Structure formats: structure tokens, C-alpha cells
Amino acid sequence: MIRDTETLQILLDSLRQFVGEVLIPRENEVADTDAIPQDIVEHMQAMGLFGLTLPEEFGGLGVTMEEEVNIAFELGRTSPAFRSYIGTNNGIGSIGILLDGTAEQKQHYLPKLASGELLSSFCLTEPDAGSDAASLKTSAVRDGDSYILNGTKRFITNAPHAGIYTVMARTSTEIKGAGGISAFIVERGTPGVSLGKPDHKMGHKGAHTCDVIFENARVPASQLIGGVEGVGFKTAMKVLDKGRLHIAALSVGAAERMLDDALRYALERKQFGKPIAEFQLIQAMLADSKAEIYASRCMVLDAARKRDDGHNVSTEASCAKMFSTEMCGRVADRCVQIHGGAGYVSEYAIERFYRDVRLFRIYEGTTQIQQIVIARNMIRDAQG
Ligand code: COS
């Protein structure tokens, strides 16, 4: 749902300008230094980008899902590290508090997240619990007015910068699986909370992940999200339904950028006496990419509108994430191919994008997890 087409268009135009004039020219710097420059962080803060999805009452822009995916189409056109920096506050790090938090928790944390004063991280994955998220082992044992947390969370985006962590931990050893999991807001600086070494990743330079380690970390019971035990896994799944749609939209933006770059290259690069864009085998790669991006764009928009209409879009979000991220991988591969040898050297952005977009098929649920979610929902619906 788009609330006001004109207002949205102004926002999208200013974002496109910001991406084109400020972010794209700094991509190499971010890749080389493995950091988002402070002036860009402040620029993103001034533009209100940390609170895009948070309601206006908490200082955010309160965008709808359809508006959000349109924004993600634009942000996807540059290095994912920029989006990643604002991504957790708009998505996995804040949405659990927004959807299931108490009034006090929302009032206390969401304004700081919306302004970018505070960064948040989402702590679900563990060394032995990735796709099988319900098998997580981090424990939270009630002790008076507190819970004592023990365990390790892995690959946590923005953990080195975060002021709060939304942590899924097991409050019940008797209830196996999902029903024994609760969600907590843990503040940085809590005694017993420490960070592991930075992960050295294939791509996404400038976006930082590491372990978050809990060793007898005492967390006040008031930090239990929603004040209810045993529903933390559901909170995480609802957060991911939304996050998956966002990643699908980012994949569309990234694929559009790569294809634009490849088309420009194909028009400039001459072989056999003419621009390679005039060769039909190159045209096939351009055309297949264009059509697949278009299909993804339609799919993402449709799923976003359904979510705004109040439908459960677990299936659609997984379809969009699976199709769009796989599409993005195919487009990346073709665009390297169109660049030929130039696509394998870092002078051209496609070499970096090829590595960056590989993650889209993995995080917030692998393609294989999306297949499982889709098929399970189909079977459940068929059986009534
Ligand atoms: N919204 C709300 N509730 C949901 C839900 C959703 N999208 N998906 C599942 N649930 C609920 C189920 O209804 C079930 O509740 P009941 O026991 O009351 O019926 C509960 O959560 C457990 O669900 P399920 O039985 O489907 O859990 P499984 O352990 O079988 O696993 C998958 C579910 C595999 C889908 C889940 O573990 C998953 O998404 N894994 C990937 C994790 C991931 O994306 N990690 C990325 C890192 S985070 S960036």
C-alpha cells in the first residue's frame, strides 16, 4: 500500500540521488577500508534512514511494506554494506520489539533505534543452530527478577556496533524445540556479554559480523520481549517473514545495478569490429536477466501489497526471497560473463557485486529453508 504517491516519489528520488551521487562513488573506499565512513553514517541519520520502518510515534517514517520494498529497490543499487548498517534497525534488530514488545520496551528503545542513536542486532543463529533455529542452546534461567544467559550467537550482523541485542534463548529445558524459546533485549555493556573476533567474509566489506557471547549475563526480567516466555521463536519467525521480503527487494535492486553496468559495458566494449551488445549471445544474457528481474520485481511488490492488506505472507515472502536471490545470483554470473576478463578484476564493480550478492541466497534463511517453508505451507493448506 502506498499512502501518498507523491511523497513516496520525493523520498525515492532523493534516495536515488543519494545512492548515485554519494554512495556509489564511495563503494571502493568502503571495500578497501572495510568500514562505512562516519560522514555517511551521519548523512544516513540525517535522512532518517535508520527509522524508515518504525512508526511515526517513535520517530520513524512508518513506511508500509510496499513503500519499504520500493526503498529497498533503490538501496540495492549500491554496496549491500550501506544497507546493512541501517538494516538491523529497520528490520531484524527492531521488528521483534515492535511486533511483540511491551509498551514500555517500545517507548524506551524504538525512538533511539529510529534516530540511529542506538544500533540493534538480531541474535538467533548459533554455532550448532543455523537452519534448525529451534534447536538453539543459549539458555536463559530465571533467577529472582533476572534471567541468567549463557551461550554463543554466531554471524551477528552489526554486533560490533550494536547498543542492544535481541536474543533468542531457551527458558525451558522441559519444552523441547520452538516452544521453549523466549526473546530478550540485552544491552551492550551488560557484565558477561562479550564479542568474538570479526568474521572475515567473502564479500560485504564494511558490514561487520561477529559472535556475541553470553557468560552468566544477568538480564532484568523486564527485558523479556512482551513479558511472555515461550513465544520467542514465533517472534523470530515473524521478523524473518518481513526480513525475507526486504532481502528479495534488495536482490532486485542489486540485479538492476549489475545489469545496468553490464549493458553499459556491452555498448562500449568492441570486439570483432562492433560493440559486443550487438552480438546475439550477449543479447540473450541481457534479455534473460531483464525478464527475470521484472518477474522478481512483480513478485516482491505483490507479496508486499498482500502483507499490507493484512494477509499472512509467509509463503509469498519465502517465494520472493527464494526466486529473487537465486535470480540475483544468475544475473551476477551473466554480468561477469558479459564483462569477460574485465569482470574478474576489481576495477569493475561487478567483481565485488558477484561476491556480495552470494550472501543473499544464504542469510535470513537459505534457499533450501525457503523451499521447506513454501512446501510445508502448501501441504498444511491442502490438508485444511
Ligand atoms: N510466523 C509465526 N509463527 C510461525 C512462523 C511464522 N512465519 N513459522 C513458524 N511459526 C510457529 C509455528 O506455527 C509453530 O508454532 P506451534 O508449535 O504453536 O504450532 C512454531 O513456530 C514452530 O514452527 P515449526 O514447527 O515450523 O518449526 P521448525 O523447527 O520445524 O522449523 C524453520 C521451522 C525451518 C522454517 C525455521 O527453523 C527457520 O526458518 N529456519 C531458518 C532460520 C533462519 O532463517 N536463519 C537465518 C539467520 S537469522 S538472519
TrEMBL record:
Q: Where is the Acyl-CoA dehydrogenase/oxidase N-terminal domain?
A: 5-117
What residue stretches are annotated with the Acyl-CoA oxidase/dehydrogenase middle domain? 121-216
Gene Ontology molecular function: any one? acyl-CoA dehydrogenase activity
Q: Which top-level group of life is the source organism from?
A: Bacteria
InterPro entries of this UniProt entry?
Acyl-CoA_DH_CS (IPR006089), Acyl-CoA_Oxase/DH_mid-dom (IPR006091), Acyl-CoA_Oxase/DH_mid-dom_sf (IPR046373), AcylCo_DH-like_C (IPR036250), AcylCo_DH/oxidase_C (IPR009075), AcylCoA_DH/ox_N (IPR013786), AcylCoA_DH/ox_N_sf (IPR037069), AcylCoA_DH/oxidase_NM_dom_sf (IPR009100)
Q: Which UniProt keywords apply?
A: Branched-chain amino acid catabolism, FAD, Flavoprotein, Oxidoreductase
Q: Name one Pfam family in it.
A: Acyl-CoA_dh_N
Give the signal peptide range: none
Which pathway is it part of? Amino-acid degradation; L-valine degradation
**Cofactor(s), by name:** FAD
GO BP annotation list: branched-chain amino acid catabolic process
**Which parts of the sequence belong to the Acyl-CoA dehydrogenase/oxidase C-terminal domain?**
231-378
The family classification in the record reads: Belongs to the acyl-CoA dehydrogenase family.
Q: What is this protein called?
A: Acyl-CoA dehydrogenase
| Organism for this UniProt entry | Pseudomonas fildesensis
